[in-house]
Amino acid sequence: MSKLNRATGWNYQPSEPIKYNPLFDFPPKLDLIFGWMIKRWVSISRFLLFFVLALILTKYLTPSLSIMGEVDYSWVTYLFMRNTALLFLVAGTLHLYLHILKVQGDDYKFLKKEMAKNNKKFKFRNQVYDNIFWSVFSGVTIWTFYEAIYWYGVANGIVGTSSFQSSPIQFFLWILCLPLIRGVHFYSIHRLLHVPFLYKHVHVTHHRNVNTGPWSGISMHPVENIIYQSSPLIHIFIPTDPMIFTLHLILVTLNPAFTHSGFEQIKNKKTKLLDSADFHHQLHHRYFDCNYGNMDVPLDVWFGTHHDGSEEATKAMRLRMKGAATK
Question: pTM to 2 decimals?
Answer without folding.
Answer: 0.89
